[in-house]
């Protein structure tokens, strides 16, 4: 207790007694082409920042007097750094920003790359492309644009460790806590304006996390007045994109309106079978009630259907001659059909009230509601052969072609060769054989039996209500306060529906794995004892049906103080979280623990943060930030087997995070740079994986708990102006992300055939997977006359590690081995490091003014110009292991590869 009190005092102590000579900076920001005011421009002085209003006006108080650098940042415009000598009141007049349209390139295709795989859109590996596009920080911009295709995660953090607000409300998945950015996919113009804070730095709209925080501005009066039509063409995830946006700005009658719509479509992206069919619509309306009050209503939706990519083994990639082979699709009636589809349609409605009782006080209150459906389809089968073409028993390696080991049951060079020939020459071997699945179901119909194959839709439907109220108040010229309250009421509905019977007549709602293992026990095989032996058809729910509820409330406050040489802040956040499961089916394996509302789990948490910026001069300063955070565990990693019962991992408790960062910033007429050292400890985290177990022949949930990790490293970014037209840019991250203890795993079997067991996982010092721990980029920028720009970047990625199978790091995996088997032991327990790789990217753009009132901008980019198709961005060891023969190659790892050469063409017409 004394230690925590000391941390609290240290967080707030820098704020005591700070009163010094400061000044104010004000001005107006406008478009260099049209002289129209630019709203939502981030204006920053050292660690202080604000943004322009609907008239392009801004004011920053409490700025240290003397020489400072004022930075102006807006997505789609060239950032400006202006050196100013600050007096008591300094008016900069009109600052004109030059459009670059470069953001149209980055936000057009790269942001969809990371959500094209079998990971859902809320994946922890989802990249940050676009979110930090308007950042004044060189490293953040390059990480946002350039590193995204390599699945780079800043500081190795998962998505849920950085906050994303849209319209001042936080939107996140109830199960994972992560942001699903696809909710506003295609609405680039309407969601372009944003305020971003990196790392632990404070913001004025949220307490923030360790991964920074971003607020996407939806307020209609803050959108630039324009009418814009955009067409894009690419070979990445979709082929065509059409967008239209109209913004009025604040009109004389006190109304402001922004309307935007888009269409993205394509029959196949860079990976075959990944079709894309997406629409999006946005409407923002604001009414200025008086000089002090405004109301804003925003509604948007981005329905999408897309074919997903699956990873595969290197053997399969070699057989097909492509590292982009996709096992999810096959031909049906001569057309490509993908069994794995992502289908999402979740509208969001936001109501905002803006109140400025004085020029020193602002209160923003927001309420949002999210609803709709999200699902992922997948093949299902009953008493039938596995329909997946790359199933390990269908590969040549399952039938060894050499060796004389008598224990190799399936030794058959002839069969292996025949299978190899089929893979090389037969589409029905390489891909899903839809005709065969239909034929087998037709035969089952003749026998009066249920379908052998079907497609199911696994739903994750979210219903969220959020309320946020944020107060910003200038206590004096040198001290300010930001604080707020947040309340969230979330319900996630998780269930399966029968999507397609594939020619079959019906499906029986029983668990085939329990039916097999408990033959003759009709009760235990039931998925729902309340509706036993239920015959289901297309659209019916089956298998599992439950809800996860989570309610949370947060109270936070941050005090900032400025002086001539030092800016400091301290903050405190208190939160309460409760969650519980509600079962809508009575499962036959767990009849007493599956139906109805389960136990409620409650968590009270607090977080502390503080920091200081020491201004060596107006061009050089040091920044130190630190935080101690406790937070409730997310629901996904709390329940052992939420689909069938109400049971959580042992010793469920809050996670603790201790984080610090030290940065040096340089702002001179020719150099903008930041160098940061960061160090973060994670204590008592949880991870859960669900997979099909070949030996047990059922689904298994593998929950690891009491995990400790460390994320440490160096971030650096610099932009050097070589001439009036040329600039050099560079960014690098050198990270070291590792597990620091041996975790414990609780293993549950869904068919109930084996009691729950606990194992120790020997994964200490293993690397965190899913992101390059080393990433670097060096580039050259040219800004020529007539709004011409050219960018060239060389990028390097290294220290990428495969997601490991915990079962291989247990004592049972090494059972029977001795010191004479050192080589085998190393093969079993060592984590696979993936090869490093380099890419070359380039982009070019030009803007044309027509008749002094129309603007045409053309942009073209090429990624991975040298077509390097050997870079593995990630993958995973299969969650199966040959315990009997200790053969690590029996279930080889599956990989995903960096896209080869891709392009993006963007044509915009603004009037």
Note the main attributes of this structure.
Maltoporin, Chain A, 28-stranded antiparallel sheet, four-stranded antiparallel sheet, 9 helices, 48% strand
Please outline the major beta sheet. Answer: 28 strands, antiparallel
N- and C-termini, Cα separation = 62 Å
Specify the CATH architecture of the largest domain. Answer: Beta Barrel
What is the alpha-carbon Rg in Å?
28 Å
Which topology of the largest domain does CATH recognise? Maltoporin, Chain A
Instruction: Estimate percent helicity.
Output: under 10%
Number of helices, counting only DSSP H or I runs of 4 residues or more: 9
State the CATH superfamily name of the largest domain.
TonB-dependent receptor, beta-barrel domain
Task: Indicate the mean pLDDT.
Answer: 90
Q: Assess the beta-strand content as a share of residues.
A: over 45%
Q: How many E strands?
A: 48
Low-confidence spans: 4-20, 105-117, 125-134
Secondary-structure-based class equals mainly beta
Number of domains: 2
CATH domain class name of the largest domain: Mainly Beta
Net shape: globular
How would you explain this protein's 3D organization?
This protein has a 28-stranded antiparallel sheet that branches. The chain is mostly beta strands and 911 residues long. The longest helix is centred in the middle third of the chain and has 13 residues, at 413-425. It has 2 domains: 103-380 and 455-910, TonB-dependent receptor, beta-barrel domain (Maltoporin, Chain A), CATH 2.40.170; 390-430, no CATH class. The relative contact order is 0.11.
